[in-house]
Inverse folding.
């Protein structure tokens, strides 16, 4: 695999960062994941804006222009001969003396690498399962979820719990017991032709695909609501689906409310018509943007 490291492409076996990098030592950094279709990144400017918004509250230097980063993403895709793939952009604080003071690290580290490929077509067709974890989402008062931070221990713990539950994706509640998001996805459910998703105030990341789905719903006459919802709302739903850059729009057909409880089907246990329509609209939006 070819990886972009700071200012050049390198072989993965030769890609390394300093042991003094504060991203390695303290998780001090941010990331963004984008997806390309035929070497063209979907909603790139939205991703770039979110990257800058993550960097700003950390006072983390991001000296690369939108055009520069987009060019480097394209180079990574072409070097690996992957026209349709996801790329993770990581910006770490950079090397410096031990200690939490970020001002001693004047040169941030930039890494871009491909995500492993997955058979997402199978998930779109068959649907996936989710589980509600005991691990709660970090409160916004502790760490703003709009900072897409390299420190993922909160969601790693949830992912580990989800693996033990035997589900595809773990979904976290906030400290008040309301739904937030998955470890790498946003959550939606459908009831009587309307779609619902947790509001940002519950403590979740404003996903790029989440926003695209909401806009498509409004544009095509599908009522959409953001609010505070519980796991019981998922059980009563006609459909449930997840959205993310790498999954696009994927139906959820099974739900596990806790590790000791049995798996429950969502409605008839099959991908629903609203989910399928929204995914078709999303794919049409992709085609329109990259053509």
């Amino acid at each position: 695999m070819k990886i972009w490291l700071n200012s050049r492409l390198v072989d993965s076996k030769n890609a390394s960062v300093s042991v003094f990098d504060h991203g390695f030592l303290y998780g001090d950094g941010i990331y963004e994941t984008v997806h390309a279709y035929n070497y063209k990144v979907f909603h790139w400017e939205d991703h770039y804006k979110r990257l800058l918004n993550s960097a700003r509250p950390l006072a983390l230097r991001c000296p690369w222009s939108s055009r520069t980063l987009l060019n480097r993403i394209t180079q990574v895709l072409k070097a690996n001969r992957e026209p349709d793939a996801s790329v993770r952009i990581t910006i770490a604080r950079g090397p410096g003396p031990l200690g939490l003071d970020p001002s001693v690290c004047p040169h941030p580290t930039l890494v871009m690498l491909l995500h492993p490929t997955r058979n997402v077509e199978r998930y779109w067709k068959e649907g996936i399962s989710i589980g509600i974890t005991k691990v709660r989402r970090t409160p916004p008062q502790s760490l703003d979820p709009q900072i897409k931070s390299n420190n993922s221990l909160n969601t790693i713990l949830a992912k580990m719990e989800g693996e033990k539950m035997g589900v595809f994706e773990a979904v976290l509640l906030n400290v008040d017991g309301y739904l937030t998001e998955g470890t790498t996805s946003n959550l939606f459910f459908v009831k009587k032709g309307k779609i619902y998703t947790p509001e940002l105030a519950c403590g979740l990341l404003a996903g790029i695909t989440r926003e695209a789905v909401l806009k498509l719903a409004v544009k095509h006459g599908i009522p959409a609501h953001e609010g505070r919802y519980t796991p019981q709302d998922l059980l009563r739903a006609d459909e449930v689906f997840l959205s993310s850059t790498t999954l696009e729009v994927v139906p959820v057909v099974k739900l596990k409310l806790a590790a000791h409880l049995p798996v429950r089907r969502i409605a008839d246990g099959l991908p629903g018509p609203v989910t399928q329509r929204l995914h078709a609209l999303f794919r049409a939006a992709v085609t329109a943007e990259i053509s």
